Every structure is written in C-alpha cells, then in structure tokens.
Amino acid sequence: MKLADVICSHCEAAGLEPQAEGAVCRYCGTANALTGVLCPRCDEVNPRGAEVCADCRQGLARTCPDCGLRQWAGVERCGQCGRALDALALSSGRWGRDPANRLNEQARSVAALKAHELADGERRSAEFAAIEARRQALLAEARHRRDAQQRIILMVLGGLTVGFIIFVGVLVVAAALGD
Ligand SMILES: [Zn+2]
Ligand SMILES: [Zn+2]
Ligand SMILES: [Zn+2]
Nearest ligand, CA of residue 12? Predict the structure, then answer.
C-alpha cells in the first residue's frame, strides 16, 4: 500500500505525507504513526521488519559505514554518530527541504486556518440567529400577554358601565314609583 492511500487516524482522509517520524496528514496536520516500514524511494508502506521494498526493491535499512548502526534507509544522518548518509539523498531530499513542498504546506495550513475561521463565523452567526429568534419569541409572548390584559380591562370597564347604567335606571324607576 502506498503512503498516499493510508487513511489519517484523525480525519480519515487519504493523503499522508512522509515525515522524519511516521507521516503527517496533508489535510488536518495530524501526525500518524505508520504500521510498517516506509520505502524512502516510492512511498510504499512495507510490513514491519521488511528489509527490501516489495514494490521497487529499494533497501529499507542500511548500516552506517562509520559506526555500523543499522537504521532506516531514509535517514539523512546516522542516528548514532551523526555521519551524513547522503547516498540516499534522492529520497529525503523530497521532504521538508523541498521549497515547493514547504510552500504547499504553508498554503495548506493557511487554507485550514481560513476554513476553521469560516466554520467559527458560521457557528457564531447561527448562535446569534438563535438568540435573536428567542428574543423575538419572548417579545411576541409579552405583546400577546399585554393584549390579553387590555381585553380584560376593557371587559371589566364595559361591565361596570352597564352595571352603573342599570343602577341609575333602577334608581330612576324607584323614584318614579315613590312619587
Ligand atoms: Zn487528517
Ligand atoms: Zn519502494
Ligand atoms: Zn553512524
């Protein structure tokens, strides 16, 4: 399996890129540990312990000519004595030091940041819309309650007026009968 086909453990996108240790997701930047030995030439992820790439036959381990440390073929310097192992610069040269690659990484992180900010902005405006909707609902409810109170007051006033008229009428009739 090629490294580019390995799924990111964080965002599950396929598109890992090799790094000094493991691989990093080109979309979310998460560092992924590799389950096998990466071929420094063709990016094949070989089974753990493999000595030769199953795809391109590149040796996956090499021995430092100075101190004899056996190590991954893609390292630029011996992990023990620091000797430059530039015979395989063909491989590691692509990583990190490649200006075009670094530019891509910068563009990607800027794009990721923008996407993040955009999502933040959208969430904020959604929250604002929710607050506004709640405010409008409370206002409508208050208006409704006030209207209901006004109707009750009008009804009471109307009742009192009718009662008063009837009362006056009874007084007038009583006065007439009394004469
Ligand atoms: Zn990812
Ligand atoms: Zn290979
Ligand atoms: Zn060494």
Answer: 1
Distance, in Å, from the CA atom of 13 to the CA atom of 5, rounded to the nearest integer, reads 9
Cα of 70 vs centre of ligand 3, distance in Å, is 8
Six token digits for residue 78? 């011996």
Closest CA to 108 of 34, 29, 8: 29
**94 Cα to the center of ligand 1, angstroms:** 21
What pLDDT score does 95 carry? 46
| The dihedral sign for the CA sequence 138, 143, 144, 150 | positive
Tens of pLDDT along 138-167?
A: 999 999 999 999 999 999 999 999 999 999
Torsion, Cα 43 49 53 57, to 10 degrees, reads 150
Q: In whole angstroms, give the CA distance from residue 14 to residue 5.
A: 5
